[in-house]
Fold this sequence. Notes:
The structure is a single chain. The chain is mainly alpha-helical and 192 residues long. The protein has 7 helices and 4 strands; from the N terminus they run E-E-H-H-H-H-H-E-E-H-H. A hairpin with a 6-residue loop joins strand 1 and strand 2. The protein starts with a strand and ends with a helix.
Amino acid sequence: MIACRACKVEKSEDEFHRHTSTKNGRHPDCKECRKAERRNAYARKRDTALTQMRAYYVTNGDVIRQRAREDKQLRRQDPEYVKRESAFNREWRRRNPEKVAASNARQRARGRFSPDWTVEEWTALLDLYGHRCLACLKTGLKLQPDHVVPLSWPDASNAIDNIQPLCGTCNRRKGDRHIDYRPQYEEAQPCP
């Protein structure tokens, strides 16, 4: 048992980091106290630390990105890592279909159209139309974002005002045509 210099509590050896220059081979402060001290030191110097980190990244960004790419290539040679990464990604995509749809739309429109829509805007649009397909008016289906004016058309936009929720069947049926189902939906709704 070793008494922590900071909190004065006796703890087992494994509660202290190794330190070769001390008699007992352990740091005089326990892991919890050192962690708290590092947090406090960072909080005191947060702005300076962030400025230094940004400056370092601006100066050495290429080296950092190259090192990250090399590390990822090394990890991807391990079959266990690939299996874990694939399982994690599959599960994330299953739990976040709206984010996946938004990401796919952004990738298709990247560099050609702006502004993009966000997951929050897509969720608000689904709420506005009662989570129903605007073409067949069915609910309980998995809805896809459909561009009223297709992205392949000139002057098309990837903004939320050019998006309508459709089920997969109706979206495939619509294809690359300009069909706006939103007025039909508003006409089909009873007046309050």
